[in-house]
Amino acid sequence: MNRPRPVEKMVGIIKKLPGVGHKMAERLSYHILKMPQVEVDRLIDSIQNARRTMKCCSICCNLSEHDPCPICSDVTREKNIVCVVETPQDLIAVSKVEDYKGLYFVLGGALSPLDAVGPDDIRIDKLIKRLKRDSINEVIIATDADSKGEITAVYLADIIKILGIKVTRLGYGLPVGGDIEYADEITISRAIAGRKEM
Asked: Where are the zinc fingers (C4-type)?
């Protein structure tokens, strides 16, 4: 027996979420259908509210309710160092490390020639404009330790070095092929401390 069309549509939409396969989408769909209506309404409201209120910070491109975001607005942070990450989730992971007091920049992805993601598809131009505008002495490249992250790191390092800015890469306390957002604070802290100039 086939699933009812509304459920099939729901499964199709949910499985578009990252890390959600067909079976998980099916489980989530049926779970949502069993939830009390008040909980479903809360879920819908929270999604709509987040979509409505979250903005992209005009300085670092992090998601925030405010522009500029609280990190960019924090006068106690070191303004001459920028940590470049792929996603807002990576920024959150790195920001849990108390050792790092600088600023951030969220690329919005990583270069991936196989997926046709080039420099124009992520915020490299915006990063370079910021580096030229602000008095930045060092850029820490904190892209993932996978092939896409490495390609992105090398590409960025080549461009940023031309500007006369020191470029470092997180030390390899992070596992190769791993995502920064899943690393614990101690690992990220050691990676920041062990960063190397590129």
From this structure: 57-72
